[in-house]
Design brief:
mainly beta, 2 helices, Jelly Rolls
Length: about 180
């Protein structure tokens, strides 16, 4: 005898929004046990991969004094990050760049933004968000939580000289996992 058909389809979880990624990052940044479990290196960034919400990619990252990411974007992924310890500075561009077909662009005046994020504060961002994140402290480590959805297909790295932004390198997941 055939089994009865279900009367409704099984619930499917929706992809997390940028706000949900930020909520995850803030809650995780407020977990002293998890934050304290990250080994810190005085020379370079350290990281632990986390289980993010709804299939997102998430990381706990340690930032030695004076370190940063350089200018980059996360391609088609939206994301969020929250500072768990210390203070991070995010510099970003308030402009949507073409996703393909260019190697160098001259940016218009007034597109630069900067924000400082202290412990258990964060921000969400959409696709193609170009930024750099820095620990500008001369003496204190910072720790942060980052989440991206969909999981990062690539990271584009940029060089910047005044108003000129140049695409320098494209990293794939195998480069950082």
């Amino acid at each position: 005898m055939p089994s009865p058909l279900p009367t409704h389809a099984p619930a499917r979880s929706a992809a997390p929004t940028a706000a949900e990624l930020l909520d995850f990052a803030l809650r995780t940044a407020a977990d002293p046990g998890l934050v304290g479990s990250l080994p810190l290196d005085p020379e370079g960034r350290t990281w632990i991969r986390l289980d993010g919400p709804g299939g997102s990619e998430a990381w706990l990252i340690g930032w030695p004094p004076g370190t940063g990411t350089g200018w980059h974007d996360h391609a088609e992924s939206r994301g969020a990050f929250a500072t768990a310890r210390g203070r991070l500075t995010e510099r970003s561009l308030a402009v949507r760049l073409p996703s393909e077909g260019w190697r160098s662009l001259e940016l218009s005046p007034g597109v630069d933004r900067s924000r400082s994020l202290g412990a258990v504060s964060g921000r969400a961002f959409g696709e193609h968000h170009v930024h750099e994140v820095l620990n500008e402290s001369p003496s204190e480590h910072a720790v942060s939580v980052h989440a991206y959805y969909p999981p990062l297909p690539l990271i584009r790295r940029y060089g910047r000289s005044g108003p000129v932004l140049r695409l320098e390198h494209v990293e794939r997941p195998a480069d950082w996992q």
